[in-house]
Structures are given as C-alpha cells and as structure tokens.
Amino acid sequence: MSASPVRTRVSPEIIVLAGCLIALITFGPRASSGLFQLPMITEYGWGRDTFGFAIAIQNLLWGVGQPFAGAIADRFGAFRVLCTGALLYALGLVVMAYATSPGVLHLGAGVLIGFGLSGCSFNLALLVFAASVLLVMPLALALATRPTGDEGQGSASSVPNQSIRQALTEAFQHRSYVLLVLGFFTCGFQLAFITVHLPAYLKDAGLSAAIGGWTLAVIGLANAVGSLGSGWLSTRMSKRWLLAWIYLGRSVAIAAFIMVPASPVTSILFGISIGLLWLSTVPPTSSLVMLMFGTRYMAMLYGFAFFSHQVGGFLGVWLGGLLYEINGNYNMVWWLSVLLGLASALINLPIKEQPVQREPVLQPAE
Fold first, then answer.
1. In a 3-state reduction of DSSP, which class is residue 145?
2. pLDDT in tens, 281-337
3. Backbone phi and psi for residue 334, each to the nearest 5 degrees, phi listed first
4. Backbone torsions φ then ψ of 7, nearest 5 degrees
5. Which helix (H) or strand (E) holds 17?
6. H or E segment at 147?
7. What is the 8-class DSSP label of residue 48?
8. How far is it, in rounded angstroms, from Cα 192 to Cα 340?
9. Which run of H or E residues covers position 326?
10. DSSP codes, 327-347
11. How many CA atoms does the CB half-sphere of 51 hold within 13 Å?
C-alpha cells in the first residue's frame, strides 16, 4: 500500500494567501520582542540576562516542538496544529503582559510562546498582539487537509511505507543533510540575538527607542523582498552557493555595522542590508531538504533542521544578555556572530545537491 498525498479543500491560491497571512501575523510579535526588553527590566529591576533567558527558552522550545508539530501535520494535516499553536501563542503573550517576576516571564514569553510558535509559525502592545494571533485559527481552515489513497505517487524521492524512524535514520546518516543542519545553527544565533538585543544596543549608543523600532520595521520590510528574491534564486542557481553567499553577506553587514559609530542612518542601512538576508536562508534550506528526501516527511525533516536553528537562537539571545551583564557591552556576541557566519558559509559548500541514493523498490507484477 502506498502512502497518500494531501488533498486540499481549497484552491492553491487561497492556500498560499492564508499561509502568507499566518506568517505575517506570527512574525510581528516575536520580531518586536526586543522593544519590550528595556521597559520591562527597568520596571521590575531585572538584568538583561533575565529577559534574554526568557526569549532563549522561547527559541529553544520553538525548535523542540517544530519536528513534532511537523510530524503531526504530515500525518493529520495542518489545521489542528495551527489552531493549537495559535492558542498557546496568544496565551503566552497575555501571561507575558502581566509578568511581574522572572518565573512568570519565563512561563509566558518562554514556554507558552515557544511551543505556540512551533505550531503556528509556518512559520498596548502585548494584549493587542494576543488578540491578533488568534486570527491564525480561521486562516488555518484554508490549510485543512485530508489524506487520499495515492500520496507520494509521481515523486521520484518517495519510498512507499517508509516509517518516521526510517526517514530520520536516513536523514541523519546523510552527510549533506547534517552539514545543512549545522549551518542553519548560525542563522538562528544571528537572528535571535539581533531581534532581542538590537534595540537595547542602539539605546546604549544614545539613539532613541524610535530608531530601534524603525530599524526592526525595515528589517521586516526588507525581509519580504529578500525572502522572495532568495526563493527565485533557489530555482536558478546552486542552493549551497546561495546559502554560502547569504551567510558571508551577513558577516560583512554585521562587521561593517559594529565598526562604525551608530547613528540613525547606519542603523536603517543595517536594517535594510540584514533584512534582505534575514529569512533568505529558508527557501534554499527547505528546497535542499525536499530535493534530498522528497516531500513525504518534509515538514518533520525541516523541523529538525529548524531545531538546530533554534538552538542557535537560544544561545544568541541568552549569551547576548549574559555577556552584557558581565562585560557591559555586546561586542563579544557581535563578533561571534561574524565568525559563525563565516563558518556557515564554508560548511554549506560541500553539500551535494542531489536526491539521497536509495535502493530501487520492486513493484508487484500486474
């Protein structure tokens, strides 16, 4: 018996639109979390390491939950996963809004939002965000799916009746997949550190909170352009070389930013440049996973790659706060981000852009 593809109840155009809107809704609150760091630590007397650790937990649990969410979505469809994630996300934002102790902050911003993001990121302030995230639920109806009896047919990379365990064993014995997963660590480290600590870094440099907000805003705007451009390039050039250039470009942009005095102009220019490279790693990374192993366990296998991304995110956010409290500045983490970018550029070069080699499956005689 062959496994079956996902049959949708709506047109592909509506699916794409709903997916884009879900990404838009879930991106906003997490991308602007750094704007709440200084107000909250000033109000409650916490250190930056306390706030950073909460967001670090969020990134880690987001990564832990992603493979399981992907496996459930692969098996039962995306609707249940998206709705559960949206509810946890919204609840976490509410708890974060009323957090008056580190423990409650870690529960809301860390645990609840972390697991919520793993399910719905297809991935006044906080109270408004909590209400907006619930809009994911009706949009998830467009992604509701049901299995049919002919999944995987027509896909050269599909293996009939391959189990989850077999798929994972195959993936982690494949050198190119392991290299891809290791390289993705850097993406999470850089993005999470910048998202949470950039507004505070600019404030330390004497710039207003508004500049921090505008810098995050232009990152989001440039990110849309960069992601679309990366997706286009992924179909027209070597994906491993595209990833290498992206990581190298990030290192150059970060090094240039921290080597010149911070100003509104340099901040906005940095936002544009890093924004163009922000999520541009996702199209070539996900494309390589699909190229190597096919689409059957795509969500789960990309989820494990994303877990590496989020381990990087955990360390980027946590070390940012911890080393600031120790050294009184973010210099060490900025330069670590540069070095990791260079390392990931090199790590991606040996990747082989071809399907995993499998033994041919004999079909029964008609």
1. strand
2. 988 998 899 889 887 777 778 888 888 988 999 999 999 999 999 999 999 999 999
3. -60, -50
4. -105, 130
5. helix 12-31
6. strand 145-147
7. H
8. 14
9. helix 298-327
10. HSSSHHHHHHHHHHHHHHHHH
11. 27
